[in-house]
Amino acid sequence: MEIRTLPDKRALGAAAAEAAARTLRETITREGRAHVVAATGASQFEFLEALVAAPGIDWARTVFFHLDEYVGLPASHPASFRRYLRERIADRVHPGAFHFIEADRPDPLAEARRVGELIARHAIHVAFVGIGENGHLAFNDPPADFTTEEPYLVVTLDDACRRQQLGEGWFPRLEDVPARAISMSIRQILKARRILGIVPDARKAVAVRDCLSGEVGPARPASILQRHPDTTVFLDVHSAALLRRAEGGP
Q1: Which of 19, 64, 87, 168 could cross-link to 98 by cystine, CB 3.0-4.6 Å?
Q2: Which residues pair with 4 in a beta bridge?
Q3: C-alpha to C-alpha distance for 220 and 2, rounded to whole angstroms
């Protein structure tokens, strides 16, 4: 695992977007198409803004999947991850395909199976991920399931995760934050050939320290990134502060 620390969120987003764009261009040249997993949330704003502006990407040859979606939330809701991805990616660069999780369908388990069957047909070339304040990876809150082979799961969100969504301004009250979501599983995320982690902000510093320099295990879901053969995590000085201290840096 490579860790890169940038001065601020804008520099982080630019560096991560440069790496992502290079991966997409090289994959499309080599294989004719790039299969991508895209994350959402406030941590991805600067990265996605820079990525969609990157030159030389044949977006028609990209196929996107996304990590997670709240159960029961319509796509029109301001906090819907489908809405987020349409506004920030799909409607701007028009990928060849974008496989959304329709988590407001009547049967969430059936929807998890549907998108799981879709992603199982493809090798994922690159996944863009974040790390939650509680160390979650996608919506795999601690203790995460490190063993299931199901590509997508219906999960229950813990209080720390729901408070993060409230703190980022996606919902007006804690009781408005859905209690369940459909999430890509840990093992499915790890199947991506390359993983780029985009993790800015001081509020992520404890999770960054625990997951990137601590013991790997379900209590720190994103710690599994330490075992992936091609992961780069992009931090800013604020999210990296405790990690540098733990490593003996300034």
Answers
A1: 64
A2: 234
A3: 18
Both tokens of 158, joined, read 């813990």
Half-sphere exposure of 182 toward its Cβ, with a 13 Å CA cutoff?
29
Distance (Å, whole) CA 155 – CA 178: 11
Task: Judge: domain 2-246, CATH 3.40.50.1000.
Answer: no
- Give the largest Cα separation in the chain, rounded: 52
The whole model's pTM is what? 0.94
* CA pair distance 49, 34, nearest whole angstrom: 19
Give the model confidence (pLDDT) of 192-227 as tens digits.
Answer: 999 999 999 999 999 999 999 999 999 999 999 999
The Cα–Cα gap between 205 and 133 comes to 8
Contact assessment for residue 74 and residue 104, using Cβ atoms and an 8 Å cutoff: yes
